[in-house]
Amino acid sequence: MKDKYIVSSAPHVHDKTNVSMVMWNVVLALTPALAFAVYFWGIRSLTLTLLGAVSAVVTEALIQKMRKVPVTVNDGSAFLTGMLLSYNINPGAPWWMPIMGSVFAIAVGKQVFGGLGNNPVNPALLGRAFLLASWPSLMTSGWLKPKTGNLSGLNDLDAIASNLQSLSPKAYDLVTGATPLKVVQTLRDSSFVASINADAGEGIDLANRIFTNITEMASLKNLFWGNVGGCIGEVSAFALLLGAAYLLYKNIIEWRIPLFYIGTVFVLTFLFGPIQGSGYSMMLPFFHIFSGGLMLGAFFMATDYTTSPLTKNGRIIYAIGCGVLTVVIRLVGGYPEGVSYSILFMNVMTPLIDKFSAPKAFGRMK
Amino acid sequence: MKMFLKLGLTLLAFCMVATALLAYVNSLTKPKIEAIKIKEAQEAREMLIPDAEFEEVHGAIDYYIARDKTTKALKGYTFTAEKAGYSGAVKTMAAVDSSLTIINIKVVQQTETPGLGTNSTKPEFAAQFSGKNASQLIVDKDGGVAPNCIKALTGATITTRAVTNALKEYIDILSQEINGKGEAK
Amino acid sequence: MSFISELTKGIIKENPIFVIVLGMCPTLATSTSVSNALGMGMAATFVLVCSNIFISLIKNVTPDKIRIPVYVVVIAAFVSIVDMSMAAYLPALHKSLGLFIPLIVVNCIILGRAEAFANKNNVINSIADGIGMGLGFTLALTVVATIREVLGNGTWLNIKVMPSTYDPMLITLLAPGAFITLGFLMALMNMIKEKK
Amino acid sequence: MQLRTFPGGVHPHDEKHFSASAPITIAPLPAKVTIHLSQHIGAPSTPVVKVGDEVSKGQLIAEASGFVSLNQHASISGKVTAIDRFPHPCGTSSLAIQITGDGKDEWVDLVDEESFMELPVNEMKERIAAAGICGMGGAGFPTHVKLSPPADKPIDTVILNGVECEPFLTSDYRLMMEHAEDIIKGLKLIMKIVNAKKGVIGIEANKPDAIRLMEKLLKSESNLEVVGLKLRYPQGAEKQLIYAATKRKVPAGGLPMAVGVVVQNVGTAFAVYEAIRYKKPLIERIISITGEGIKKAQNLKARIGTSFAELVELCGGTSMTVGKIISGGPMMGFALPGLEAGMGKGSSGLVLLGEKAARSMEEHNCLRCARCVDVCPMNLLPSTIAAAVKYKNLDMAVKAGLNDCMKCGSCAYVCPAQIRLVQWIDTGKIRYAEAQKEGK
């Protein structure tokens, strides 16, 4: 009689959340984006995603066996990492790409540091950085054209394409062979703009026309639904917002990081986004927040528990930092997209932010 | 105090011996090293423009005028362009013909990342410069469109830029030099 | 300790890179290809042996308090002399090794062995130590370089070893790749040592 | 009515439905009681009876061994049969006096002072001290000490704590519903003792009828008010209650008197009233016997020292295989190894959980999800404290707030990795105390 009662420390009740519930819910929230990817690019996106997720799980299990610690792949964190990694890969990538990335992400990004909760940076993003450094050409070219659209999202592409081809082959190559962010990045390069305008004859501000075109409502619509070129998971802002809403509702992610991240990008791209002569446009910030990996990054990667600050104020600083870096890389840097690098960089800053934003205990005066 | 003095003097003695040795070795080897360098440069020029004799010109940049050994006809110019790469200066020797179109180039000195930037010394890299004029010297990553551009080395865009932009710059200066002289004469 | 054990300890037991963790800068910088690694290893071994001899010879006249600056002067002077002589009399060899010689001055192994070994031991043992450490350094460097060159360039000593369909993993040639490779090799060494 | 609250906190299911509607039932006389000498914060009481002595109900059997200590009284008439170590309602065991009853149940010197309101303040305090009253919310701080603030800390507000934010417990609620007028009298007495002008009764929103009742009774009193509080744990913690009711922040490490406030549990106010009016010592209290494991959950008015086993029997026994017995509420209470212990002055409830509810999950690595940080009512970094304690870095633990923690358990409640944060913090507090001792 006496021994059968459990004696443990308070509290004796617990709310329903646990690690695996959190992780599998995030996986669930990510599935709409996958559905869109499959719709636009075919079953290949699903195959790549599964390859990434499964190899992450296998790697984690093997390493935990090697480390002689309990195998905890059921908690879903490895699956999630592999899935997020695959989401950052171009759907036209070779099949071994997500596998290499997942193995690296789990082995070097996570298990080396002691597994779940101990990694200094987001393992999925580290895996992506590894892939980008290892196979830069495979990672940044060979984008697949979505089923019903075109890579750059320029809506009236066919109409202007023939025009462009005769006016300036360079401009034609640009709008037909690159993702929206790449087009914008190239258009920001004054020497390129000068050269296409020179090609096309004087008086035609071709760059400006393309630039305005890409931020038009019709193009934004393509971006919003995901009818443009891009990585598997980042393409449809709509699907990602759907998943994000679910996570916010479930209280799994907190609103501060996404809001301040996206808000910073919005404000900064409004101020500094226009190219010479294009003038301020209310559409341009929308172009920037819907394109590339920002939605995926802001809702699903920057909010990663382990690598974001503990404190509420810290999260705001962190999110603004991510936003500023993203805009700097997009507008000034060498890469068209900067979401993953800016999150990785702010991940590293997290302990510092935590240190300086530690809250004052209730009733403690400074 | 005395101890410090003693230590200081000992160290001084070591330094003096070392300096003397270095000075002596330097005096022995310097002329030889110089000679080797000049010979190498001459060989490099001859490789770029064969069967030519070279006349050195000091102007805004130093360059050599290459003339045919027998006919003395102008064959072109050679010069060494220099610009900062990823880790230090990248020196490229180039030969251009009389219309300033590149005949051939050779990266002669660089300290770039082995395996990436050092690929700039490979003949495949040099080959794509042949036949290009100053306006075509633009790296693809900077908006150049093939085939009238320079394809960046994988993982070494900065090195490629250093070489390409240095050449472009020097050719531009060279063209002013030559044309300026022509007008003056 | 005998001459032989001084000679062999540097290869595994006291490997300068994997165990003593000395000379990381040249290791990370020059291990991008096997030929570089061999060049660096040989140049470093040569300088190491010579500097060990010198330091061991002057150990009785070097005041203890200023031994480090003296070593620095001796090593730097020595390296410069080697560099200049090589350039003047062996230009072909200098062309392939010349790049590494200035790097040797900052190679901690040289100073480290001078401080830890040569100034306490006689010339013969110091030579053995220099050769052993140099060999260990060369070996470790070659191992790191082999992994990096094969994965990052698909070649080994500039000979193609990977199938033509292989897409080289460029990161191994970059600085992060050097750290990761070195880290894994050190982990491996520790694992082997623990098993023993 | 506008509901007030504090920052942070969690929302556990309140589970009050088991016993909320059960009126207070007077428990029959127990055959035996064990009265612990340490039912309060401060020095244990010193026994004044020997084994074999006959005692009457209400007789002093152990006296306070200093200012911060407490008198203990016999809760039944009978014979002292043992002075020994007995299981304590905190799960440990400690020295207690065991009395075997003779069934007579005779009071010693009880009075009925009609003009109790007019008594001098010193007399009131003496009566409280004599009655052995301590805080009845659970912490058990001797009431006469709390009501003797130093002269340089004037008190302007007395807050009665009727929050009862712990899930399951309903003893304060029933007391408020059935003895509201006496509680208000107690409040007035306390106000008089500390010379406060204002009185506040804080009640959580899940007890709307208690709020309405109190409001009705206080309508004519200009200096007394009822404050409705949002349903949020730990609303009833002293500092959080003060902040919610008055917007004053008690300085860290300080006492409520630093901001001119005294907080007393409604049960304490009731005991104060009875002690001053009738000179009645604290020998009985309301305890909720509740939880899914009990057949008929009840609020019992039982004698101090009655064994939990007896109380459970009074409620019809268990209804399922019980996994865990909790003395107090499930957030801060103690899990007991068995039902042998006798209830103390701070025992507000006994919760029996079924096996499924009692099972705890395995501890995982900390995810750094910051839920604990978000809910901490004291604005601390619980995960950092726990990690610092785990890796024996006391300085870091203190920096992250080790000494400010009141162990409300909100952090451990929400932790998805099931880390026993409170346990780690407890360990840290013990280690810190040891380190301090060694330092001195």
Can you walk me through this structure?
Chain B has helices at residues 2-48, 123-127, 157-184, and strands spanning 52-58, 62-68, 74-84, 89-96, 102-109. Chain B is an alpha+beta fold and 185 residues long. Chain C has one domain. In chain C, a hairpin with a 2-residue loop joins β1 (155-156) and β2 (159-160). Chain C is globular and about 60 Å long. Chain D is built from 14 helices and 17 strands. A 6-stranded mixed β-sheet of chain D has the order 1-14-13-17-15-16. Chain D has a 4-stranded antiparallel β-sheet with strand order 2-8-7-4, with no helix packed on it. Chain D has a 4-stranded parallel β-sheet with strand order 11-10-9-12, sandwiched between helices. Chain D is globular. Chains A and D meet through α1 of A and β15, β16, α10, α13 and α14 of D.
Tell me how many strands of chain B there are: 5
Instruction: State the end-to-end distance of chain B.
Output: 72 Å
Low-confidence stretches of chain A: none
How far from one another are the termini of chain A?
53 Å
Question: Main beta sheet of chain A: strand number and arrangement?
Answer: none
Give a short synopsis of this structure.
With 185 residues, chain B is an alpha+beta fold.
Question: Could you outline the blueprint of secondary structure elements for this entry?
Answer:
The complex is a heterotetramer of chains A (366), B (185), C (196) and D (440).
Chain A: H1 19-41, H2 43-66, H3 77-87, H4 96-107, H5 123-134, H6 136-140, H7 157-167, H8 169-176, H9 180-187, H10 190-199, H11 206-214, H12 217-225, H13 237-249, H14 256-272, H15 283-290, H16 294-301, H17 312-331, H18 339-356
Chain C: H1 3-9, H2 24-30, H3 34-57, H4 67-89, H5 91-97, H6 101-105, H7 108-118, H8 123-153, E1 155-156, E2 159-160, H9 175-195
Antiparallel strand pairs in C: 1-2
Chain D: E1 24-26, E2 32-36, E3 46-47, E4 54-55, E5 60-63, E6 72-73, E7 78-87, E8 93-101, H1 121-131, H2 143-146, E9 157-162, H3 171-178, H4 180-194, E10 198-204, H5 208-218, E11 224-229, H6 238-246, E12 261-265, H7 266-278, E13 284-290, E14 298-303, H8 308-314, E15 322-327, E16 334-336, E17 349-354, H9 355-358, H10 371-375, H11 382-390, H12 394-399, H13 410-414, H14 421-439
Parallel strand pairs in D: 1-14, 9-10, 9-12, 10-11, 13-17
Antiparallel strand pairs in D: 2-8, 3-5, 4-7, 5-6, 7-8, 13-14, 15-16, 15-17
For the structure shown, list the relevant keywords.
heterotetramer; A: about 375 residues; mainly alpha; 18 helices; globular; B: about 180 residues; alpha+beta; five-stranded antiparallel β-sheet; 3 helices
